[in-house]
Every structure is written in structure tokens, then in C-alpha cells.
From TrEMBL, chains A, B:
Keywords, in A-Z order: Glutamine amidotransferase, Transferase
Signal peptide (UniProt feature, chain positions): none
Glutamine amidotransferase type-2 domain residues: 2-255
UniProt cross-references to Gene3D superfamilies, sorted A to Z: Glutamine Phosphoribosylpyrophosphate, subunit 1, domain 1
Protein name (Swiss-Prot/TrEMBL): Glutamine amidotransferase class-II
Lineage of the species this protein comes from: Bacteria, Pseudomonadati, Pseudomonadota, Betaproteobacteria, Burkholderiales
Coiled-coil residue spans: none
Domain of life: Bacteria
Pfam families assigned to the protein according to its UniProt record, in alphabetical order: GATase_4 (PF13230)
SUPFAM superfamilies xrefs: N-terminal nucleophile aminohydrolases (Ntn hydrolases) (SSF56235)
GO molecular function, one term: transferase activity
Length: 255, 255
């Protein structure tokens, strides 16, 4: 199984603290050593890093731990290969363009016998079930809407699409187009919303703590979604099975 | 004006030497300081780095100068903004997926009044004339062929498409799908093919030389395409205006 990390914030925020703990699971505190990847939105632009080395000793992961890239939407993934070999084209997150926006997708789990025909313009480059499912979601979104719909409309469509894929196996995923972060759980996914008053937190995977109040303003709001809690002294809310949540400006939305 | 760098080789090769000289033009020996980018194919997979900082002092460019990423097809670009602001979504190279392959494109020059209607699935995310032209090329390729055609067929189609865009301005570009490197010149582009027996070369933009014979085997072949010669002691062949060349396995092809 792989591990997912997502971040959504109302102001550009760096994920070096969360990524430092998360990256330890890529070969040190976890055996997810078959590559990793991370994507950062900056406005509509995207920085996308993938590597088939272990996150714990990849020079590119080291750069990301040290160089604070500020973003309002981040998706990261460390991989334990179940389908598809350990090559760059099989590393998550995957990226496609639709309606003049980049879409980023990462998946944790295994889908059995989900290989719907892809009759539109989205085709997988690698060999994973995950990228196939992502291309199908992109195809169905492009058929369902003529242009970028509202976050609320997208959420309704994505809930329908996720419900059609989920019966084929384990389908925990993160998706973002830079406007929102969508997260769907089959099994393991939890989240936290950090807001004023900010406090201190300690990583579970590394001997490191941070005092968020020293790095934030009272207006900052940040939501973090992850496979397993990253910190030992905060309360993380687990997703229910089959739940799709959407985060905008660092807050889980009611719709 | 921007600067382009392309590399095509018959064996995975690192571009740290060429990139070191090239990156100096991003703020030190040249005024191309409005961001930069580089894309490396590894098999069908892609590493894509873009940054709106100057290449000469970007931490990500520093990583690429130090960490030898080996690739058979590389496209790099340093930007001097003429159209579109200095934001991440306007940094070249641009990437799209077509027929289950990634396509990478970078452009040097200015296109006037070339905004054809994009009626297919490819739309620009940023505001540059370059990305608009790339999306149009992708659209026309997808209409001209049902699946990935041969490199020879693609070259014929691309020659027709380039000839339709070139009259609108300056259209020096590099394009790759991981199988070949296409290069089109309106004004400034030159190339070199390095093969056995390899010799030494000195960079124009930095006090650095390399003895290629120490890093190669007799079977290696590497072609480098660039806006202006990178080395002072090798013979670079200039493109003729309107010429589109294709490089496969480190050699310029006759078709």
C-alpha cells in the first residue's frame, strides 16, 4: 500500500514540516520505498517532482525538505508498488490538463478489474491501475461539464464517479486543480484543520516539533489530509469509508 | 528573447555540463532572468522542473547542476518574458499527454496574431503565445494521426504545422515525446553531434571544461541543440531559417 499527503490552505504555505515526517515513511519508518512524488500548485502553475528512488534518501526529496515551496494546494505520494513496475512513469501524482487547468491525482489502494475503455483524449503513460482510473475520471469530467464548473458542482460529479470506481477495490485518492483539494477514502485517510490559535505539534515519524504560532498569522487556515496521522499530539479526524470531502481555503466544505 | 537547450542521445546521458553553461545565461552571462525550466525523459516517464526564479541562483537549478539525471531526451529553456507575466504557469517547457505519451515543448521567439481557435482537448493554462501554439500543434497532431505514428511520419506532419505558424513571427522550438527530439529554427539555433572519438570541450559561459572521452563509451552518440554555441572549441552547425530537424539516438536523421 502507498501513502498519501494533501495540503489545502487559504494562504501560500510550505509543507516542509509535514513532508519531513511523511518522507520518513518512504524507506525508514515505513516500507514504501518504490518511488515518491509531490506536486505544488502556485496559482494555476504547477511544480511536479517524481522520483523512483526512496523518498528517505532521494536528493530531490532532500531539496523539498530544505527549500520551502509555498503553495495553497499540495499532493504527495510515496509508493509501495502493487501494480506496475518501479519506473518513473508509474510514480504518482499524475498530471493532466483539462479546461486550461492542471489536475493532479494520487491514489492509495488496489483496483481489480477496473479497466474501462478510454474513448476520449486521456490515456495512461504508465501501467498502473491508478493512472487508468485518473484518465477515466478526467474523461468523465470532460463529458459532464463544458468548462470548469464550480467547486460544488465538481464535488457532486466526483462523488458519483468515485462511487462507480470504489466497488472495484481500495480507492483512497487525492485530487486537486489548484482551486480545491478533493479527498476520497475507502479505508485509511484522516485530516486536520489548523487555525488560530495555533499551537505546537510533534511529528510521529521523526524527532521534530514545530510551533505553528511562530510561522502563522491569525487569518491562516491549513487543512492536511494523510493516510495515517503525522503528529502525535493533535487530534486527526478519520474519514468514513466511501466519504468524499472537499477542502477550500483550508477548511472542509459542507457540500 | 529566450534561450533553448535540447539533448538527444542513444544512451542515458547527463546534461550537467551543458546545463551549467546554459544556466549562466539565466541572469549572469545573459539577461534571461524571468524563470526557466527543464524536462528529462526516462523511458516514457518525465521529470519536469520549472521555476520563476533566475536559473543562475535557483536552488532547483543548483540541484540539477549537481545531481546527474541521466536521460536520452532533454529540453531546457530560460525565459526573457515578452508575452505573459513572470509566473510559474508561463514557464517553459510545457507538457501535455497524447496517445499515452508525454510531449514536451519549449519556444524561443514571438508570435504575433497567432491565436487559432482551440476546439479540441488542449488548452493553455498560462498566457503565453508559446503555450497556445503548442496546444494547437497537439490538437492538429491528434487530428492527423489515430495513434503514435512513426518518427518519420511525425516529422512530415510537424514540418507542415511549423510552416503554418512560422509566418506569424519568430518560431524557434524544441519538441520531444521521448522517442525523438524535433528542432525548428526561424532565426537562431545550432547543433552538434558528439561521437567516438570524444575529445575535450570548454564552456563559453563559465570557466569549465570536460573531457568527454573519460565519461563515454565508443558506442555513445549525443546531439545537443542550442540557441547559441555552448562551447568555444567545437564546431556547431547553424540551422537554416525554416528548417525542422529531427534527432534520434544522438544523430540527425535524413528525413
Amino acid at each position: 500500500m502507498c501513502q498519501l499527503l494533501g495540503m489545502n490552505a487559504n494562504t501560500p504555505t510550505d509543507v516542509t514540516f509535514s513532508f519531513t515526517g511523511f518522507a520518513q515513511r518512504g524507506g525508514k519508518t515505513g516500507d514504501h520505498s518504490d518511488g515518491w512524488g509531490i506536486a505544488f500548485f502556485e496559482d494555476k502553475g504547477l511544480r511536479h517532482f517524481v522520483d523512483h528512488e526512496r523518498a528517505v534518501d532521494s536528493p530531490i526529496a532532500e531539496l523539498i525538505r530544505r527549500y520551502p515551496i509555498r503553495s495553497r494546494n499540495v499532493i504527495a505520494h510515496i509508493r509501495k508498488a502493487t501494480q506496475g513496475s518501479v519506473t518513473l512513469q508509474n510514480c504518482h501524482p499524475f498530471v493532466r490538463e483539462l479546461w486550461g487547468r492542471y489536475w493532479v491525482f494520487a491514489h492509495n489502494g488496489d483496483l481489480k478489474d477496473f479497466r474501462p475503455r478510454l474513448h476520449s483524449h486521456f490515456h495512461p503513460v504508465g501501467a498502473t491501475d491508478s493512472e487508468h482510473a485518473f484518465c477515466w475520471i478526467m474523461q468523465e469530467l470532460s463529458k459532464s461539464h463544458a468548462d470548469v464548473p464550480s467547486v460544488q458542482e465538481l464535488t457532486l460529479t466526483l462523488r458519483e464517479l468515485a462511487a462507480r470506481i470504489a466497488p472495484h477495490g481500495t480507492f483512497n485518492f487525492l485530487l486537486s486543480n489548484g482551486q480545491a483539494l478533493w479527498a476520497h477514502a475507502s479505508t485509511h485517510l484522516c485530516y486536520i484543520e489548523r487555525r488560530h490559535p495555533f499551537s505546537q505539534a510533534c511529528l510521529c515519524d521523526e524527532d521534530l516539533s514545530v510551533d505553528f504560532s511562530a510561522h502563522t498569522t491569525p487569518h491562516d487556515r491549513v487543512a492536511v489530509v494523510v493516510t495515517a496521522p503525522l503528529t502525535s499530539d493533535e487530534v486527526w479526524t478519520p474519514f468514513r469509508s466511501g466519504e468524499l470531502k472537499v477542502f477550500v481555503d483550508g477548511a472542509c466544505q459542507a457540500f
